Amino acid sequence: MPRSFRFVWVDVFTTRPLEGNQLAVFPDARGLTDDEMQSIARETHLSETTFVFPENDKVDRDRGYRTRIFAVGGEMPFAGHPTLGTASVLSSAVNREEVALFLKVGRIPVRFSQREGHRFGEMSQNDPTIGMTHDPSAVAKALDLSVDEIEPKFPIQTVSTGVPFAIVPFRSLETLRRLRPSWARMEDYLRGTDASYFYFLSRQTVDPHAGAHARMIFNGGEDPATGSAAGDAIAWMVLNGYAESGQSVLIEQGIEVARRSHIHCRAELREGRPVNVRVGGFCAPVIEGTLNL
């Protein structure tokens, strides 16, 4: 028998449609198999597609909505913009100021409020784990750069609130914007480390209100906004004095791929460890439709 599944397409970390990072959300995916969800993710061909499996009001409110995140290449335990975008769709549907998702990494709450005339959502990410410190010369070689292009005041360090990123600080915005690394060379380097990806930062920004300019390049191209990496980055910032404990930092990303994104981050430093990692932003709904199988 034919089956139909409603979906909502949102642009995340922006107030403007056709900017930010795209996401397709299936608010009720009950009845879909793993293979079907993976096929749908390939069909949307977005960086991620999410599938929600509602149970009952008490479970969904207390434990969180069971949600699975699929990229084109496979399922992911956690990702930032799918978490924010999915929670935004669910929050609008049930008219709640807080919605939690139950993901592979556990319960992730997202709280919504009005800001600048739009609904602003902020997720609480897991407390970060701090990994290895990387050799700048080896990283520069993997990126086909001179080591002098990397900011020496701060370490290149792996941090994870769910997905491990090696945070790489650059001296200048100009160098970061013209960066064109080979994924194969980056992958060769990362395979011998505890990081899955690089997240590149510069204190110099395009938007004067931003505190950092970021890029995330992976095997599928370039990510317009990476909420999981932004959580890692703000933890790294407060740990290394790049930002103050509790300071709200605006990260701009996606400019190089014509999908400007604004990611709002904050974290605290307690007894020498970053905690209370918060990542937030706006969402712009752009498409609603039905998938027929």
Please, could you describe this protein's structure?
It is built from 7 helices and 18 strands. The longest helix is centred in the first third of the chain and has 15 residues. The chain is globular and about 60 Å long. The model has no long low-confidence stretch (mean pLDDT 97).
CATH topology of the largest domain, by name, is Diaminopimelate Epimerase, Chain A, domain 1
For the record, the count of structural domains works out to: 2
Order of helices and strands: EEHEHEEHEEEEHEEHHEEEEHEEE
Model regions low in confidence, pLDDT < 50 over at least 5 residues? none
Q: In DSSP terms, counting alpha (H) and pi (I) runs of 4 or more, how many helices? A: 7
For the biggest sheet, the summary is:
8 strands, mixed, barrel
Q: Classify the beta-strand content into a percent band.
A: 35-45%
Task: Using the alpha-carbon principal axes, give the shape.
Answer: globular
What class do helices, strands and sheet pairing give? alpha+beta
User: What is the averaged pLDDT score?
Assistant: 97
Strand order of the largest sheet: 1-2-3-4-6-7-8-18
Which homologous superfamily in CATH is the superfamily of the largest domain?
A: Diaminopimelate Epimerase, Chain A, domain 1
State the CATH architecture of the largest domain: Roll
Helix content: 10-25%
